[in-house]
Design a protein that fits this description.
Order of helices and strands: EEHHHHHHH
Protein name: Membrane protein
Organism: Longimycelium tulufanense
Mean pLDDT: 84
Helix content: 55-70%
Number of domains: 1
Radius of gyration: 19 Å
Strand content: under 5%
Strand order of the largest sheet: 1-2
Keywords: Membrane, Transmembrane, Transmembrane helix
Number of helices: 7
Largest sheet: 2 strands, parallel
Length: about 270
C-alpha cells in the first residue's frame, strides 16, 4: 500500500471508473482509498477538479492581494488559527463542504498576504513601491510556474509516480520538516539556529531543497487526483481534492517568498 505526504488525499471514497488526467494507467499501486457504498451521484471528472481548484486558488489570491494592499499584517495570527482549525475539520471529517474549503482558502490567502508584507518590509525597508516590484507578484508567478511545470511533467509521463518515488518524496518531506523543527528549537539557544533560515548560502540551498520537495509533492497530489477520478469518486469530492492541492501550494508559495527575500536582502 502506498503512502502520501499529503494527509488530505488519504481515504477518499471510490466508485466506478471514469476519465483520468492521463491516458495511460499509472504505474503506482494506488492510494488507500476506502471502498464506498454504491452511489448514483455523477463521478468526478477532470473538469470538476480543474474548476474547483481554480475557484479555491482564486479565492486565496484575492484575499492575499487585498491583505497585502491594506497592510493588515495583524490579521496573520487570526488567519493562521482559522486556517488550521478548518483544515483539521476538513481532513478528519473528510469534508467536501465548499464553504469550509473556501473559508480555508480565504484564511490562507490572508495569511500569505500578511507574510508577504512582512518579507517585503524586511528586504525593502518600508515595503515594495508597487505590486509588480514586490515579492508577492514574483512568488505568485513562481508558484504558478512550478505548478504548471509539474503538471506537464506528470501528464507527459516524463516522471512517473512509482512506489519508490513516492517513498523518496515522503521521506524527503519528513526530513525537511525535522530539519525545520530542529532549526527552530536550536534558535532558542543559539541565534540563527542551524543557519537554515538566516539568509546565508546554506539557507538559500535549504530553501531550494524545500522548494524541490514541495514541487515533487505536487506529483503525488496529481496522482491522487488521477486515481480518484479513475475510481469514480463522486463529483462533490473535487472540492476536497482542490483543498489538498491548496495545502501544497501554500507551502510552496511560502518557501518561494522566503527564497526571494534571501536573494533581495539589502
Amino acid at each position: 500500500m502506498r503512502t502520501t505526504s499529503n494527509p488530505a488525499f488519504r481515504n477518499l471514497p471510490s466508485g466506478g471508473g471514469y476519465a483520468t488526467f492521463q491516458d495511460q494507467p499509472s504505474t503506482a499501486q494506488g492510494y488507500p482509498y476506502a471502498a464506498g457504498p454504491v452511489t448514483t451521484e455523477r463521478p468526478m471528472t477532470i473538469d470538476d477538479v480543474v474548476t474547483k481548484t481554480g475557484i479555491t486558488a482564486g479565492a486565496a489570491l484575492l484575499a492575499g492581494i487585498a491583505t497585502a494592499y491594506s497592510g493588515a499584517v495583524f490579521l496573520a495570527l487570526p488567519a493562521l488559527i482559522i486556517g488550521l482549525v478548518l483544515s483539521l475539520i476538513i481532513i478528519f471529517k473528510q469534508s467536501a463542504n465548499p464553504g469550509l474549503i473556501l473559508g480555508y482558502s480565504i484564511a490562507e490567502g490572508v495569511l500569505l498576504g500578511a507574510i508577504t508584507v512582512v518579507f517585503d518590509n524586511f528586504v525593502s525597508k518600508g515595503g515594495a513601491t508597487s505590486f509588480l516590484e514586490g515579492l508577492g507578484f514574483q512568488a505568485i508567478v513562481g508558484t504558478g510556474g512550478v505548478f504548471a511545470g509539474m503538471l506537464i511533467v506528470y501528464k507527459t509521463g516524463a516522471i512517473r509516480v512509482t512506489p519508490k518515488l513516492t517513498r523518496w518524496i515522503v521521506g524527503a518531506t519528513i526530513g525537511v520538516f525535522v530539519l525545520m523543527l530542529a532549526n527552530l528549537v536550536t534558535s532558542f539557544f543559539n541565534t540563527g539556529g542551524l543557519g537554515l533560515r538566516d539568509g546565508s548560502p546554506l539557507a538559500i540551498g535549504f530553501s531550494l531543497l524545500v522548494i524541490g520537495v514541495a514541487a515533487f509533492s505536487l506529483l503525488l497530489d496529481f496522482d491522487a487526483a488521477d486515481q480518484a477520478i479513475r475510481s469514480g469518486t463522486p463529483s462533490k469530492y473535487a472540492w476536497y481534492i482542490a483543498f489538498g492541492l491548496m495545502t501544497t501550494l501554500v507551502w510552496l508559495y511560502i518557501e518561494i517568498v522566503r527564497l526571494l527575500s534571501y536573494l533581495r536582502q539589502e
